[in-house]
Structures are given as structure tokens and as C-alpha cells.
Design a protein that fits this description.
It holds the Pfam family SACS. The protein is α+β, with helices and mostly antiparallel strands. The chain is built from 21 helices and 23 strands. It is elongated and about 140 Å long.
Length: about 650
């Protein structure tokens, strides 16, 4: 049996010095030692001492050269000679072994100062009336000196030859490193006089806090990424930060792809500080042991318990409050939406959070299903459970900009429709109206080359407004609509109610008489053409909240009923087809033109009207068009018989 190979002490020390993944980890180690020594404060400072003045020849490099002095001072217990000899200058021995309240447990933290290859290290310390200085040279040889002056705690000075440029870069990064490691330290940590310590926590609006004798946890939802109306990205859930601490000192802050991320909690952020969590030797990760597993189990319990309850209960409360700033109509929706209110931001965050929990749980529990999540246009409160069933049955999500005759009829029919909030549907509706107006003006003013510059400017502004109205799935309602779509397993995008159901309002009697000749001619031509028509009526669709998207007319079983968009073009001619009423949009610009034509030639106007109605379903074959024209001429001849020869 061979004897074990001799250990080179120098190599072992080099390995210890270079074990940390970041050479600046020594800041964390020194601050950690100071806090473990009972210091309530730690002060870090930097100084650059120039080597000399530039020569007469203008040697700029001489002025740049000098020494950097890093000072780390604490006011803790300090060290006496026995501790210096047995702990500071002797590796692998630590008074912290077995004490879970002390963070550094390897007894090797101090050697990390040599990772930046200093030219000298000076440690001044005092304890129980003894004051000592320990000097380390560039080769890490040390000498111990007795000091006469009184002092408190420990001061470590690290001296390294460098240049002014490198010094400035080092100090800049050092501040970032110290803040990363120590911003939640349980004492006050100052860098160049600035307090970098801050209370432990996520600093997020939507969090749950938990604390026991061993752990302090905050877990919550990140703010929505890109909460900006100019470039909306509503409902995008951040990846989250998973951060682990011991005594408030950072062990690791992990994001997607890091081994310490809890994959099933991506989308949430958490910070957990526990005495049972430990860092790896390289100080760049947390040890995955039984204690780590216990912490992760607790995090999952909080995410799927208290945090989930908090999200759904807060939504219920906010929706019940019915803040007019959320659900009310805006006089200037563009201006209001450009600056989302705090109330709107909170609601958007809550809905995005609810969607995360619905996806995580692949549904919603009974208790949460009974909570309110939205309002109908009438103001009726709607629960998750009611909407889940109703939307699943309908297969679509509908939104209304406000209470209208159409929305009231839909609610009376027990169909689900959501009240818009934050001006989302108003913006979309304004875009729709701008597009309709632009299309009408283009028809009215004919060829583009013949339009005057003023009309071109008006059209350009209208088309710009049409483009600005974001679809509902990219509006501030994204979180709610997405959550309901996930719950009800709806595939299609949400739609404005007025595009999915149509309902005309009856004009007054005087208007109806003006339109009678065109209505009668239209009904007669359709009937002679073999279509099952129960008459032709004129109605006002915009006043009800219906959005016909350019249709000149729809068909209904009975005038004034709710009609589905997919049935609005139906007009049968078969034996078993049911008669339907053709309802013409009295406010359509083309219809207004045809009404003028109908004063002298009602059959010609009716032919054009019927053709436009059928074109909504697709192109008309030449033979069908010819037959329609022939029927119109026949009706005209019945009205105006040719004189007998």
C-alpha cells in the first residue's frame, strides 16, 4: 500500500484563494466576518495615492501610477492574540463551526482578500484591552505587531499598486458587487459614506410575506413588462428572480436557466433568507441539500396558498369597489389611456397574476370560482365560475365599451359580456369608427388623384386613428381576457360585442315613410327572385351599439331581435327555408346615396342594395347578377308599364 502523496501547502493556499468565482467576493467575506463579530456597522472606503508627479518631459503614465487602498472597518468584537494565531493566520479552523447563526463556516473567508493579488494587507484589531496589527506582504508572509493606541473592532486595509483608470473602474464595480451581496445585510453597510443597506423584501406591489423562527420569505408577482400605452405589452409575465440569502447576505440571485431556479415558480419572484441555507465553496450558488428542499417546499406552499388567495381576493375587492376611473367612460380616451392611473395599473397586475395562477393550477378552485372578477356593462358583478361556464358554452369572449341597448339585450338573453375598463373598448371602438369614416370618405370622394390636399389630410388622420386602436388581446384587458380564455378553453381572440351580435333600432314613422319606396322595391325583387323574404325594413344599428363593419344590410327572423353575425347574411330560397326580414342600415353612406336614387328609380337603387348585401358573402356569379338585374327590370315594368303600341 502506497502512502498518500504529500500536500503542497502553497498550492493548497492558492486553491483556497482562487476558489471564488469572482475575485471581488472578498468584500462579502469581510462584511460577513464583521457582522458575525457583532458589528452593527461596516464601512468600506477607497483611496488612490499617486506614486509621484509627471516628469518635465510630460510622462503622463507616471501621474497615472499609484496605489489603491481599500479599507473595511467594523466595530465588532475584534481579535486578541489567541484568535489571531489560531483563527486568522491558521486555515481550516473556525469558531463558527456548529453555530447555524453564523454565516461563514469554512474559516477561510479572510484569504479571499488575496484573490485581487494585493501588494500588502494590514489588519488592525482589538479585543479585551489588546490591540494588534497583522501585516501581510505580497508573498502572503505575515508579521504580528502590538499596538499601543486604543481602538475598537477590526480594520482591514488592502493595498494594491495600480493606475488611476484601473482604480476608478475597480471602485465602480466594487460598489455594484457590495450592493449585490450585502444590500439586505442585518447591519448598516456604507460604501464611501453612502448607506447601501435596505430593508429585506422584493419591493413589489403584489407580494406575500412570511416569517418564522428560521426563515424570512417574500414571494410575489413582478410588475408587467412594458406597462406602456405607447408600445403595449400588456399581460406579459416577467421571468422573475429567485434569490436566496443567509442573514440577509446574498447567496445567489437566480433567473431562468440557473440551477437554483425553481422551474415551476418561474413567473414569480421571491427572496428567502434562512439560516439553514448555505453557499457553495465558490460563493456563486446555494447548496442543494435537505434544507434547500425544505425551503423550496415552503415556497411552493406559499405560492399556491396564501399568494394565490391574496390575488383572487384583491381582484374581488377592486371589482366590487367599481372605481369610475376604471370602468367609467372617458371624455378623452386617448389622453386618459396615455397615462394609466395607479388603480388601472394595479388591476392589470392583478389580472396577469390571476392568469399565472390559473395556468399553474390548470383551472380554478371552488372557493376562488365564487369570487368576483369582472363587471357586465349594466354593472352586474360576475364571478370566475359563472363566466367560465357561460363563456365555455358560448365559445367566445365579448366586450362592450359601455351599456347600450345591444348590451342590455345580450344580458337579458343570459349571454356573457364584459364591461370594458381602462378605455380598452373605447379605444378599439374609436379606431373602428375612424376606419369606417375613412372608407366612406374614400368612396364619396372617388379617385385618389382627384382629391384635394385637405381631404387627403383628413383621410390620413382617420387612418392613423384606426391604426392606434389596439386589438382587445393587446389592450389593458389582456390579463382578464387571457385568464377567462384559459379557464373556458376558448381559442379565438376576444371581440367587441357589436361585431358579434346585431340589433337594429326602429326609426320614427316619418323616416320610415321616406324610405318606403326603396324598401318595397327591394322586398318585391327578392320575392320574385325566389328568396324567402318577409319584407324589407330600415333600422339604426349604430344607435344600438351594433358594428356592421361596412355591411349595408343584414337579415333577421324578426325585425329588432338579436342576430348573430354569422347568421346576418342568411337569406334562403329553398322549400324549407324560413322567411327572414332584410334590415337595411339607414345610416350607411352608400344607403343614403341609394335613397336619393330611389326617388326616381327605386328598382335600380334596390338592385344595387341587394347586390351589395349578397357581395358580403362573396363574389356574385355573372348569371346570378344578370338574373337579379332582369328581375329588377321586371318590377320596374310592373310599376311603369310600357305604353301599348
Amino acid at each position: 500500500m502506497t502512502s498518500p502523496a504529500a500536500v503542497d501547502v502553497g498550492d493548497a493556499l492558492d486553491d483556497l484563494i482562487n476558489q471564488f468565482s469572482d475575485s471581488m467576493s472578498f468584500f462579502r467575506e469581510l462584511i460577513q466576518n464583521a457582522l458575525d463579530a457583532g458589528s452593527a456597522e461596516v464601512e468600506i472606503d477607497f483611496e488612490f495615492q499617486p506614486a509621484g508627479e509627471a516628469s518635465e518631459a510630460g510622462d503622463a503614465s507616471a501621474a497615472q501610477a499609484g496605489a489603491m487602498v481599500i479599507t473595511v472597518q467594523d466595530f465588532g468584537e475584534g481579535m486578541d492574540r489567541q484568535i489571531i494565531d489560531s483563527k486568522l493566520t491558521r486555515l481550516f479552523s473556525s469558531a463558527k463551526d456548529g453555530d447555524m447563526t453564523k454565516i461563514g463556516k469554512f474559516g477561510i473567508g479572510f484569504v479571499s482578500v488575496f484573490a485581487i493579488e494585493p501588494d500588502a494587507v494590514c489588519v488592525d484589531t482589538a479585543r479585551a484591552g489588546e490591540a494588534w496589527r497583522v501585516l501581510f506582504d505580497v508573498d502572503r508572509n505575515f508579521k504580528r505587531l502590538r499596538l499601543d493606541q486604543a481602538m475598537e473592532g477590526t480594520t482591514v486595509r488592502i493595498i494594491k499598486n495600480t493606475t488611476r483608470g484601473d482604480y476608478d473602474a475597480f471602485v465602480g464595480r466594487a460598489g455594484e458587487v457590495i450592493r449585490y451581496w450585502c444590500r439586505h445585510a442585518r447591519g448598516e453597510v456604507r460604501v464611501r459614506g453612502e448607506l447601501i443597506s435596505e430593508p429585506f423584501g422584493l419591493g413589489l406591489p403584489l407580494v406575500h410575506r412570511y416569517e418564522d423562527d428560521f426563515s424570512h420569505i417574500e414571494i410575489g408577482h413582478d410588475p408587467i413588462e412594458g406597462l406602456d400605452w405607447e408600445a403595449p405589452n400588456w399581460g406579459a409575465i416577467g421571468q422573475g428572480s429567485h434569490a436566496y440569502f443567509n442573514g440577509g447576505l446574498t447567496l445567489v440571485e437566480a433567473r431562468r436557466g440557473h440551477g437554483s431556479v425553481v422551474e415551476d415558480l418561474l413567473g414569480l419572484s421571491f427572496k428567502v433568507s434562512s439560516r439553514y441555507l448555505e453557499h457553495t465553496l465558490t460563493r456563486d450558488d446555494v447548496i442543494k441539500d435537505r434544507n434547500f428542499d425544505k425551503v423550496v417546499t415552503k415556497l411552493r406552499e406559499l405560492a399556491r396558498g396564501a399568494l394565490r388567495d391574496q390575488v383572487f381576493e384583491r381582484i374581488d375587492a377592486v371589482v366590487r369597489e367599481g372605481d369610475a376611473a376604471l370602468w367609467g367612460a372617458f371624455e378623452d380616451v386617448a389622453e386618459a389611456s396615455a397615462k394609466p392611473s395607479p388603480a388601472l395599473r394595479e388591476l392589470v397586475e392583478l389580472y396577469a397574476a390571476a392568469r399565472w395562477h390559473i395556468r399553474d393550477a390548470k383551472g380554478i378552485g371552488r372557493a376562488h370560482a365564487k369570487l368576483v372578477c369582472a363587471r357586465a356593462p349594466s354593472g352586474e358583478l360576475l364571478t370566475w365560475g359563472v363566466l367560465r361556464k357561460a363563456v365555455a358554452r358560448l365559445g367566445e369572449l365579448w366586450v362592450s365599451a359601455g351599456p347600450t341597448p345591444l348590451s342590455r339585450a345580450v344580458e337579458d338573453a343570459k349571454l356573457p359580456v364584459l364591461a370594458s375598463f381602462g378605455g380598452a373598448a373605447q379605444l378599439r371602438l374609436a379606431a373602428h369608427e375612424a376606419q369606417a369614416r375613412a372608407e366612406a370618405l374614400e368612396v364619396e370622394h372617388g379617385d385618389e388623384d382627384a382629391r384635394d390636399p385637405g381631404m387627403e389630410a383628413v383621410l390620413g388622420e382617420l387612418w392613423e386613428q384606426a391604426r392606434e386602436g389596439a386589438p382587445l388581446e393587446r389592450s389593458c384587458m389582456t390579463g382578464l381576457l387571457g385568464a377567462l380564455a384559459d379557464l373556458a378553453e376558448v381559442q379565438g381572440p376576444p371581440r367587441l360585442l357589436g361585431r358579434r351580435r346585431f340589433m337594429p333600432l326602429a326609426p320614427d314613422a316619418a323616416e320610415a315613410r321616406k324610405w318606403a319606396s326603396l324598401a318595397n322595391a327591394t322586398a318585391r325583387i327578392l320575392e320574385l327572385g325566389g328568396h324567402k323574404v318577409a319584407g324589407c325594413e330600415f333600422g339604426r344599428f349604430a344607435d344600438s351599439g351594433s358594428l356592421l363593419d361596412g355591411r349595408v344590410a343584414i337579415s333577421q327572423r324578426e325585425f329588432g331581435e338579436l342576430t348573430a353575425a354569422e347568421d346576418a347574411g342568411t337569406l334562403g330560397s329553398g322549400l324549407f327555408s324560413r322567411r327572414r326580414v332584410l334590415v337595411v342600415d339607414a345610416d350607411h353612406p352608400v344607403v343614403r346615396t341609394l335613397l336619393g336614387v330611389a326617388v326616381r328609380e327605386p328598382e335600380l337603387a334596390a338592385y344595387q342594395l341587394i347586390k351589395l348585401f349578397f357581395l358580403e358573402r362573396g363574389a356574385i356569379e355573372a348569371a346570378a347578377d344578370a338574373e337579379l338585374a332582369a328581375t329588377a327590370m321586371k318590377v320596374r315594368e310592373l310599376r311603369c308599364p310600357k305604353p301599348q303600341s
